[in-house]
């Protein structure tokens, strides 16, 4: 549960990112954020927006084989991220790694669309967190969290 609380903190961190305009800068969020964890919602049609979600873990826990990932589906089709950002936070009593995925939709959308988020962790990590009872392959991808939001884009 602690990891999911950190997930919410990472989302809030991503929401506060201010765009920087420079030729060699990585992609920045466009428009406002649509958060899949908010469930079904409306948004202005033809208006830029972004989706950003993250995974967080304590790097002082055992190192697991496999990788962390976030996949976004729009209307049953996986879309590629615009940016994957790795952040390491160190303190006296913690080492935390955050991986954040950014998906920009600069032209916005029209009508109704289904967005699905898949948070993927190695099976060994899911076993350690109590999300599963067995793990035949410690590196196998395991869907640790899922969220779905139907967004209706309304003409202004």
Distance between the termini: 40 Å
Strands side by side in the biggest sheet = 2-9-8-4-5
Q: Label the structural class.
A: mainly beta
Second CATH tier, the architecture:
Sandwich
Low-pLDDT ranges: none
CATH topology: Immunoglobulin-like
Helix content: 10-25%
Average pLDDT: 85
The CATH class name reads: Mainly Beta
Q: What is the N-to-C succession of helices and strands?
A: HEEEEEEEEHE
Judging from the principal axes of the Cα atoms, what is the shape? globular
- What is the total domain count? 1
- Global Rg: 17 Å
E-strand count: 9
Tell me the major beta sheet.
5 strands, mixed
What is the count of DSSP helices, taking H or I runs of 4+ residues?
A: 2
Beta strand %? 35-45%
Brief rundown of the structure:
It contains two helices and nine strands; from the N terminus they run αββββββββαβ. The protein is mainly β and 156 residues long.
């Amino acid at each position: 549960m602690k990891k999911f609380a950190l997930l919410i903190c990472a989302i809030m961190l991503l929401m506060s990112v201010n765009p920087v305009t420079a030729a060699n800068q990585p992609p920045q969020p466009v428009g406002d954020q649509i958060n899949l964890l908010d469930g079904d919602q409306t948004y202005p049609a033809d208006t830029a927006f972004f989706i950003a979600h993250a995974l967080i873990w304590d790097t002082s826990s055992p190192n697991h084989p496999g990788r962390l990932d976030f996949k976004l589906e729009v209307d049953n089709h996986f879309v590629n991220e615009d940016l994957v950002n790795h952040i390491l936070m160190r303190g006296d009593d913690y080492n935390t790694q955050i991986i954040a995925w950014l998906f920009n939709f600069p032209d916005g959308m029209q009508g109704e669309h289904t967005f699905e988020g898949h948070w993927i962790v190695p099976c060994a990590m899911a076993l350690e967190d109590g999300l599963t009872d067995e793990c035949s392959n410690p590196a196998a991808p395991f869907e640790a969290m899922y969220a779905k939001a139907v967004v209706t884009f309304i003409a202004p």
